[in-house]
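Here is an idea for our session: we take a single protein and study its fold together. To get us started, please write out a protein record for me. Start from the sequence, derive the backbone structure tokens from it, and show both lines together. Go ahead whenever you are ready, and we will take it from there:
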Amino acid sequence: MKWSFADIWNNSLDIGRPERKLEERDYIWASELGGSMIDRYLKMKAVKPSNPHNKRSKRKFEAGNMWEFVVRLVLLRAGILKSAQHRVEYQYEGLLRVSGKMDFLAGGKPDYDKAKNELDILEELGLPEFFITTTEKIIDHFKQEYPDGLPEIPIEVKSCSTFMFDKYFESGCANPNHILQLFHYEKGDRYNEGHIVYVCRDDARLLEIPVFNPSPIEDVYKKDIETLTKYIKEGVQPPLEKLVVFDKEFQKFSANWKVGYSQYLTMLYGFKNTLQFQNAFKSKIGRWNRVIGRIKKGDNMTKNNIEAIEEMKKDGFDINNLLNEKK
């Protein structure tokens, strides 16, 4: 009887982790901070999604879990893993409570010699040689640079595609949602620094971006909680998200990911799936971005360019102000 390893693998991933039980709650998940207000409101009210996570989304989650496991092993064998998936909660007076699990807390003064001797365990697990060699070099680096130990810091691990990794690398900025999530762990457990570690799923590159506390990030963190608290307490559904947004960092228009990946995409916006939503605005966004390019180069505006600028204004975008703003 023939069998297929690919079929077995894919079927096991299709099962994945069980979905969170749909029930009303009076607290915010840390991973939701900075996300679509209307989506978060509906989830907290236990409204059934019209677009639940599909198989592909679940597989991406599992791929992220695999990289998180690899990072955990490195920290563990280097002797600097203090805790993993530690729950952190914080609540401002009169506002909704925020709860989440910190990926890792790392640091302290490890026994570097013991950590190096325990590398044999990695070989027993059948891990590739590059992984063992990398861990050994990390231990040597820590031993040389931090003989008295390392300060403890929260670490949040995120895996991403080459496209997103390059975007984070070029800008030097982490995803705003990830920043708020990590800041919550720092605020809740009183740490003055934490690191977001991005892992590129395609080529295993790493990028580490620090987040500090105290910092102006707290203003954004608190405002986010205040806004959602107001909607929940007043029982008022937040407005829909804009379908097209302007990225101030790269000065380009794009389809709003908060809409495209909404679990209420069909119910709220009438699109069957993410691809249909993106295709609906692909031509328009391309035309608008070409006009942006011409403006930057100082080219004369054609009749079509002027019409495109008028379209932007009708959608609430003042292009002159947007191009002069700094993120």
